[in-house]
Design brief:
The structure is a homotrimer of 218-residue chains.
Chain A: H1 3-29, H2 34-56, H3 61-64, H4 67-85, H5 95-123, H6 130-152, H7 157-160, H8 164-182, H9 184-204
Chain lengths: 218, 218, 218
Amino acid sequence: MDLQTLIVLIIELIGTIAFSISGAMVGIRRKMDIFGVLVLGVVTAVGGGMMRDVILGKTPSAFVKPIYVEVAVISALAPFLLLSINKRLMHSKYQTLYAGLMFLMDSVGLGIFTAVGVSTGWTAGYHDNMFFLSFLGVLTGVGGGLLRDVMAGVPPYIFVKHVYACASIAGAICCVLAYRSWGQIPALVIGTIVVLVIRIGAAHYRWNLPCVKLEDEE
Amino acid sequence: MDLQTLIVLIIELIGTIAFSISGAMVGIRRKMDIFGVLVLGVVTAVGGGMMRDVILGKTPSAFVKPIYVEVAVISALAPFLLLSINKRLMHSKYQTLYAGLMFLMDSVGLGIFTAVGVSTGWTAGYHDNMFFLSFLGVLTGVGGGLLRDVMAGVPPYIFVKHVYACASIAGAICCVLAYRSWGQIPALVIGTIVVLVIRIGAAHYRWNLPCVKLEDEE
Amino acid sequence: MDLQTLIVLIIELIGTIAFSISGAMVGIRRKMDIFGVLVLGVVTAVGGGMMRDVILGKTPSAFVKPIYVEVAVISALAPFLLLSINKRLMHSKYQTLYAGLMFLMDSVGLGIFTAVGVSTGWTAGYHDNMFFLSFLGVLTGVGGGLLRDVMAGVPPYIFVKHVYACASIAGAICCVLAYRSWGQIPALVIGTIVVLVIRIGAAHYRWNLPCVKLEDEE
């Protein structure tokens, strides 16, 4: 395995770990048992890529390369064990810590998988279809978190967190452009960074996208 | 592009606009920001066809023909801008207007996409498998709205609105029969009209399908 | 059709009937009308296998062999008619009966479809990839019930019922091992039995998997 393949694999695994932890945290928060937590972690980690591969008409890489699921299982297990051992971490004063870690893990996963989705579409031969490449990136990026939230019955992050889809779309487009100019590795790095910067900036500076307030009648 | 292709494209675009507006309205109602609204509009508009194409084993047309997504984005933007500009439209006295428009957009989308699903299956070469053709029609018709409601966390239209699946099934079957006798365009028109007539009739005459009332213990 | 094919078909149909009834019961409980109940029954019965076939890149068997959907429709119709005719069955004193039947139907479906998923992957030529085979089994087993619960808006069985995913995973692994030693029929039977034994044991002896209790702030 040459250096480039190795770097790509490492980047993918970081994204897998991040998303799997975010899934596990949602599962723990929803008081699921250990298997529910593991399932939710794995679904979050491999879900987006699975949708992408199915649309590309190839067998999902999660199946042919067990390492992704193995890493996802271990990553989902970690927070579960940590919280089981150290009960103090469950005290409500750690809510902000929880929220912050959840935000970080979800953002890293979103950034990396958005870039990975673009790169997968590129290697699948869709060099010219910038639209399709971006779409694959966004689908791969938001797919896992969307499955996680829908399965756990919580309001999807993509709709409640501001500039979530926005960050993924911007990252995907930058990733495609970077790919054309400098190739795969820079594209992966730049795409990820763009998403992270937008997400963190939005959270820190309270960026809000316009939304219409209707009188609530529910 | 010959006349028939053009007519089919126009019909598909009308369905795309209708479903995208219905998705955007649900998003606005759920107080999503502008990107959430756009995502929900696009998912509603292209979701059903994407499921259909994945099952048929072809790359979703939404990816290869960006026009559908482009039209969906513009259609989802329209109600958002309209409501942002004209705040009066948000007053609760417009609830019935909202409900009516929502019903119309969803019914038109349901009708057109049911027929389009049948026609896509037909052109894919499944002339004889009436069952498969109808199934594809219903999947394409209800798929987008189902994704919309599940993602937005509202009770799926298909289960709460009476004779929703029923209308789609009837329309799909009529569409297949019309296809055999008179070809594509008449099939698309007849399939759509059948769905619309059943939906409007059900709403107007308060048709109710039987349902079992259990004592509620939730 | 030789004997083995016949036995496999019968096993699949039993699973279809069980899952379809479980879907119909959820629909009735959610006060859906007859079409909603039928749709939910069919989705529960064919949903898992459809995901599996899409991932394997083949046209879902539910489409090419209408018998599965036909049997699912009839099975979903049965509890609906029974409850419509015999109102007494709706009295709350039958809640335990309802819960028991629901548990049985869901467990039988989970067991059979887990084994069927493994066997489908095997016949698709993935003899050596034990990981993929098990994954297909679990996906086929839990997929239908997961779609049912997400579409009906109830907390997914897989996350609230203890050792649900656990039972499916154990059954899938045993099924793969049995397949290697004794072939298809024994694999199907053993896989199903393992799932059933674990589910029933978990329910009867109140097995609980560890889960972390966080202070609730919702």
